Amino acid sequence: MAWPIGGGGMPELPEVEAVVNALGGIVRGKRITGVRVLRPQTIQSMSVTRFCRLLRGRVIERVRRRAKFILLDLSDGWTLVVHLRMTGGFVYAESRRPFPPTARVLFLLEGGARLAYTDIRNLGLIRLVRTERLDRWAEWRRLGVEPLSRTFTVRRLEEMLRGSRRAIKAFLLDQTKVVGLGNIYAAEALHRARLSPMRRAESVARSRARVVALYESIRETLREAIAAQSTGPLHLEFVNAQGQSHHPRRAPSPFRVYGREGEPCPVCGAPIRRIKQHGRSTYYCARCQT
DNA sequence: GGAAAGGCCTGAAAGC
DNA sequence: TGCTTTCAGGCCTTTC
Question: Which residues of A160-188 are buried (b: 16+ CB within 10 A; e: fewer)?
Fold first, then answer.
């Protein structure tokens, strides 16, 4: 089967969560002693000169996640916001080994360690904002509900679904509704809920049982994916002082339908189909997803 | 204002 | 063998 570029997992909520947890354990409390921007276009909202000047000397106090954004809260009220998009990732190195050519920004840390932001396709973005002004950022304000939070309820999902004539797959990808799902986990959640990706969102809302099934499938899909990341995040590589690299091995496909065109549905055995929806591949079982 | 299409981006795979 | 085309998908902008 064809694997997506990037090593078997686009960074959706579970992958970002894994990076945040691992990164937090390494860089929390460390001071940034220098910054080198190798690709200026990666830096948003301010000049490279200002970006480097503002970062130098600040301490990374906390690493957290909102939607698919990685947030590094720094001393003096600044936050470094990173979005990996498709192929972004980090390499943390304790040695002087050269970074890969895909390194876009280098953060020099006290003690000699270096953290590189890498990105093959250059779709990822980094911006530095005042923590207190995050809410003034339009894109930030538009972000929808966190699916694993208490504020995400069956009732809230039902209200969002109601009145939307879009296909449910497109609805799930809309980050202004529910955040964190991408093309892979949207397909997985729909298979688990036994809902056709072509079904209109509003038609899901007409059945309480369907809304509950979708609600639970979203949470279970994400929780299982987060647990599966426990061996180590795919988007964070470690290089020790001896220059030896440790990068988690790609596990066999953990997906029920994604990337499994032609293989039997794990529920009913019918062949998994692949269709195009809004320019994206959608994998589903035509027999048990209705 | 909602929905859909197009574009960005690069490397692997497919097609010729 | 080597060149060209297609595809992967998150998210923005443009268009309807």
Answer: bbeebebbbbbbbbbbebbbbbbbbbbbb
Residues with CB under 7 A from strand C: A 2, 4-5, 10, 12, 67-68, 83, 85-86, 121, 123, 139, 173, 175, 182-184, 258, 274, 276, 279-281
Q: What is the mean pLDDT of the segment spanning A227-239?
A: 74
Positions of A annotated as catalytic residues are: 11-12, 68, 280
In a domain, A5, yes or no: no
Least confident of A8-12, A139-143, A190-194, A212-216: A8-12
For residue A203, the domain's CATH number is 1.10.8.50
Cα–Cα separations (whole angstroms), residue A52 to A33, A46, A49, A125, A236:
10, 10, 5, 15, 22
pLDDT digits (tens, 9 = 90+) for A77-120: 999 999 999 889 999 998 777 888 899 999 999 999 999 999 99
Please give the residue range of the domain that contains residue A203. Answer: 154-230+253-284
**Do A222 and A106 belong to one domain?**
no
pLDDT tens for each residue of A151-185: 999 999 999 999 898 899 999 999 999 999 999 99
Whether A35 is covered by a domain: the verdict is yes
Number of domains in chain A: 2
Our measurement of CA A182 to C1' B8, in angstroms, reads 18
Residue A167 lies in a domain: yes
**What positions of strand B are covered by protein, i.e. any atom < 7 Å from a CB?**
2-14
What's the predicted TM-score (pTM) here?
0.92
> A159 and A117 in one domain?
no
Cβ contact A172 with chain B strand, < 7 A: no
- Based on the fold, state whether residues A162 and A130 are members of the same structural domain: no
- A52 assigned to some structural domain: yes
